[in-house]
Structure formats: C-alpha cells, structure tokens
Amino acid sequence: MAGFDDATVVRRLGGRSRRSDTLGFGLGEVAALVTPVVWLALHQAAQQIVGTAVDNGVARARSALRRLFRRPAKP
Questions:
Q1: How far is residue 58 CA from its own chain's centroid?
Q2: What is the torsional sign of CA 62, 67, 70, 71?
Q3: How far apart are CA 69 and CA 57, in angstroms?
Q4: pTM (global) more than 0.70
C-alpha cells in the first residue's frame, strides 16, 4: 500500500468487492462446519427414538406376560 497514492488506497480499502463470495468462504466450508452439529443432533434423535421404542416394547411385553400368567397388576 505504500506505493499507492491516498485516493487509490481509499478506493481499494473502502470500495465494495465485486466478488460474489461476500463472506470469504463457500458452501464447502459451510458444510464442513455444519456437518458435525447435524451429525450430533441426528445421533441424539436416533437414541431418543430407539430408547422410547425399547421402553414401549418392554412395557407391552410385561403386560402380555402378566395377562398370560394372570397375575394382577401392581398398584
């Protein structure tokens, strides 16, 4: 910048960029940053779904076995 006059320096530093990439990074970088967060969210959701399904399955099996052996339900 030392080799330019004041008008050129102000124009280069203060002017708008003509590049379409205004943030300085593109879709590839955004995907690399967002992927771990999405992966963790999906993993947690899958664990919740499986946990709920297992709990419901255990409750149904317990109810079926109770009916099979004709034991009254615990109060």
A1: 30
A2: positive
A3: 18
A4: no
Tokens of 44: 């947690």
Indicate the DSSP class of residue 46: H
Three-state SS at 73: coil
Mean pLDDT taken over the chain: 83
Q: Which of 33, 53, 55, 34 is nearest to 45 (CA)?
A: 53
* Cα separation, 39 vs 36, whole angstroms: 5
- Would you state the structure tokens that stand for residue 53, as one six-digit string? 């399904």
Query: What is the token pair recorded at 56?
Result: 């419901």
How far the first Cα of the chain sits from its last, in Å, is: 84
